[in-house]
Amino acid sequence: MLNIHHVFIIKFLGLFLGTLFLASLASYITLKAIVLEYHEEHLKSSIALMALEHNTLEHLDDFVTKAHRATGLRITVIDPNGNVIAESNTDKEQMENHAHRAEVMASDSQEFGVSIRYSKTLKTDFLYVAKRIELYHKPVTLRLSVSLERIMHNFYALWRNLLIIFAAMTLLAMAVSFKMSKHIRYDIAQITHYLDEISNKNYKAVIKTKYFNEFLQISLLLKNLVKKLASREKQKRKYTAKLRLINKQRNDILSAISHELKNPIASISGYAETLHDDPDIDQEIRTKFLQKILSNAQKMSDMLDRLSLSVKLEHNDLSMTPTHFDLNELLEEVVTNMSKTYQNRHIVYSGVSRNVYADRTMIELVIINLIDNALKYSEDDVLLTLKENRVIIQDFGIGIEKEEQEKITSKFYRVRKNSWDNSMGIGLAIVSYILKLHRSALCIESHLHEGSTFSFSIKKFKV
């Protein structure tokens, strides 16, 4: 039968070496994928740079030759018919038609065509990246490639260094396990000696290990039991409070949905009953009532969509699609569209062109929600300003009390005064969630009877 320190060292080393093997295998696969992805991205960026540096069909052979010498990459230029019109590594006249090459066909429908395959021309495997570009208003395909042998040479060099590190970690783990095993043997020997002394009625025996304290603590466990029961009762109260909070949130949701759907449902019911009770009603009135029914149905659908969106944002179920766009153009579009909805109101906008990197659809939703609130809860003009990367929406309504300002972005929260309804209480919550995804936050400045200012900034960020 194995001793406990033998079991420990065997299990410890087995677990460590097994984990190390799996980590090594996973890192090998992951690192290989990363290296391939790195070279793929490098080829893509090189294509973009070369397309900018050379924008004419003249002197293509000289250009690809010089570019090959500078970068070490194989460069091929292909016309729309698949004919090679420039090649850096071999004679283009001896090359086959490339119209049916995987990466060339893929570049017709995608931004970049990517493939890893065997090159019949150079008799080796290559990583290919191709992109359709225009040279002097004529479409061509620019293809860059690098041999897998070159990629894997760099990868294996890096992997050898990792293997050395893994080997060092293994030796260190073995040293640590033997050290710990030695300590365990010493402690067990002390406990065994102490038990022998007790069995010989030597109650004055002293144990020179920390386990001695562990045995003494047995007598203290009963005292600690009361503390544990108190702690368990405290946990029970916390759990009960949590359940109450969950029930309250559920009631808030039902109350908010019921409150907002009551009016549209009542309107639909009223118009439908009128149409049902009076089948000979004037056609113009019938059409008007049907439009009202559709409008209220759409309003309910929009409410449910906003509720669904807020839930998805809260649980991070939505992924962003950031792009580069002109924030000034987006603001002008929103102002134009909302001016059609609020024809009797004025949105005064001032700003200059400002390129940002963000999810355009989400930022548009933020701006629409903030301007919609400003228009609904004020009667004067609404000022919209783009200053550097900060969007500022200012109204001259009744304002919001200071103690309410930190709460209005909470889900289903509505200010007590009827003049500030905030729909189901999710509009500003959606705004807050979206800005949080963009590493930003909503700033609120408001004074009673003077108005409110909502602002946020959008900067370039990495997803």
Describe what you observe in this structure:
- 57% of the residues lie in helices and 16% in strands.
- The chain is built from eleven helices and twelve strands.
- Strand 3 (113-119) and strand 4 form a beta hairpin.
- The longest helix is centred in the middle third of the chain and has 57 residues, at 221-277.
SSE arrangement, N to C: HHEEHEEEHHHHEHEEHEEHHEE
The CATH architecture category of the largest domain equals 2-Layer Sandwich
Q: What number is the mean pLDDT?
A: 76
Count of DSSP strands: 12
**Structural class by SSE content:** alpha+beta
Low-confidence stretches: 211-227, 416-422
Largest sheet: 5 strands, antiparallel
User: What is the domain total for the residues?
Assistant: 4
Helix content: 55-70%
Could you please say which CATH topology of the largest domain applies here?
Beta-Lactamase
CATH superfamily of the largest domain: PAS domain
For the biggest β-sheet, the strand order reads: 2-1-5-4-3
The percent range for strand residues is: 15-25%
Tell me the span between the first and last alpha carbons: 56 Å
Number of helices: 11
What would you report as the Rg, rounded to the nearest angstrom?
36 Å
Q: How does the overall form come out from the CA principal axes?
A: flat
Record keyword descriptors for this entry.
463 residues; alpha+beta; Beta-Lactamase; 4 domains; 5-stranded antiparallel β-sheet; 5-stranded mixed β-sheet; 57% helix; 16% strand; flat
